[in-house]
Hints:
Elements: E1 8-12, H1 17-28, E2 32-37, E3 48-52, H2 58-66, E4 73-76, H3 91-119, E5 122-127, H4 139-159, E6 164-171, H5 200-211, E7 222-225
Amino acid sequence: MPNEALPHALVTGSSSGIGQAIARHLLDQGWQVSGWDLSPPTLAHERFNAVRVDLADRAAIAQALQAQPPVDALVHAAGWMRTAPLATLDLQAGEAMWRLHVQAATQLAQALMPGMTRRRHGRVVLIGSRVAQGMAGRSQYAAVKAALIAMARSWAGEVAAEGVTVNVVSPAATQTAMLSDPGRAASAPKLPPIGRYIEPAEVAALVAFVLSPQAAAITGQDLQICGGSSLPR
């Protein structure tokens, strides 16, 4: 049973990459974490509850939500990338990315945020990408990540007076398995100006701050952790 004295976060994509790093960091900080992922769990902790769910399936999400206790924070980190130039775009891949990145975030926020507003406290963080600004060969991925920013700003405006914040954290190329995913072979990752890729733990630390009481005045923002990629060239 959840310990109501401890903060509780739902983190999607918790079995690998950025989502796993976020879940681990929050556990280290004393949070309870519900980790939602289609893949088997890779974390073992007394305060970690793994939920196997296909986040591209609305019915599966709805069923999992029935057993989900109230949360103080929602972090939507699940995602994947397919790349291609306009002439060879895969429309099914585009639809699948929309379901996972945007539709799942919408369904989860719609279910969980009313409880946050009633309690007048809550945090929502959507993991975006520097690519949301547009990049050749990544139009479909850029579109879904840009949608997250627009949604976050819209939701933030709706709940700002209720003690709930909504933000996007957008990393540049991050050292995860996605870097070598064959599905993104058409658009190779770009090394940030700092000379290395972003570490998942660095993203996790920023997310943890955004979830903290000290970040109560930060909402509706796209916070970039980009190793200098956003600097003018």
